[in-house]
Structures are given as C-alpha cells and as structure tokens.
Design goal:
alpha+beta; SMI1/KNR4-like; two-stranded antiparallel ribbon; 6 strands; 13% strand; globular
Length: 216
Amino acid sequence: MTGIDWSDVRARVAALGAHPDRGEVFGARWGHGWVLEPPLSTAELAEVEAQIGAELPGEYRSFLLQVSRGGAGPAYGLFPLRRVGGRWRWEGDGADLTDWARLGEAFPHSEAFNPVEGMPEPPDDEEAEDDYWAEHDRLMEEATDFGGLLYLCHLGCAYREALVVSGPRRGVMWADQTADGDGFTPMRDDDGSPLGFARWFRRWLDNSEHVVAAKT
C-alpha cells in the first residue's frame, strides 16, 4: 500500500455535501449526491483481488481501505464496489465495460490510440451507411478487446474514465472518448505528468471546493 494520507477526505466531502451550493458541482445533483460509501476492510479487499486475479494499484487500494468503496467523486461519482450474489463487482453506468476476468492481463497501450482513426466520413447513402457503421463497430470491438482496464466513473454522453490495473501504464487514469470517435487517451496532470488515481480524485475535490466557494 502507498503512504498516502486520505484522512481529510471524508470531512471535506461532508462539508461540500452540507454546502447550500453543493448542487453547482457537476454530477453531484443527479449522481453521487455527496454520499461516500463505507471503506472496505482488509479482508474484503483481499476477496476482491482474489476474485479479479490482480492486485489493484496502490493509490486506489489505499483509498478503498481508508476512505470509501465508491460514491462521491469525479463527474457522476466513483462506481461503488459491492458484493452481489457472493461476488464483488463495480456497479454504475459503464461499469460493465470492465472485463473483470481479465484485469490481471496487461493493458497493451502506452500512448493515445483511436480504433477508428483513418475511417472516412459516413456516406450519405443509407445502405452504404449501414455497411459503414458495421465496419466501424467491428474495428471498435476488435481494438478494445483487452484486459487490464478498470472503469471508475462516467461523465455523461458515454464518456468514461478508467484506471489501468496491469501493464506498462499501471496506475494511470485513461479517458475513454470513443463515443465521439476520439479514442482512448492517458490523462495528464496540469504539469503534463501522468495522472494517477490520488491526484485525479484530489483534483476533483479541490475544484469542487472552488466551485462552491465562488458561489459564496
């Protein structure tokens, strides 16, 4: 586990949830509602990792143990980890994009990629357009048949963000923008460095506080 201190997070989220302008933060009103679910116990985390066959990246592991198994967080919130039918799984709009059985496999990409880059614009002819989208979907399905990527939240309009669990970019957050044809991109901090889970979450927390403070 990393030595990250998360001890301030629950109090800060509670303060935001009690603020009269809490609904001004994107995703809070119709998403997480400022609720943080309880953290996992060490035994529960061990069960999760045994079931997925992989150890989760340290920053996210420490968050699960010290702060929460899901809820309040970036965009519409962190997909919560719940035990369903005796097995652990992440739940939420897009959580099923994670191939839980393959999280131990290396996510093969290190740089941004677009499965359908190079395809021409859709044709005007209706019959030809059907063929075009069939080919588009085939390329997308083939190119996204990989493991090692854990989806953690959705931003609406089928945009989602995910954490690399295994592979050369382990611990880095990635943006899935395939909904508008822009592909997958490793996320970066303000200084251009790779964006890990801790900074990703804390950047959201800082920005949320700035939003409500600006309304005061």
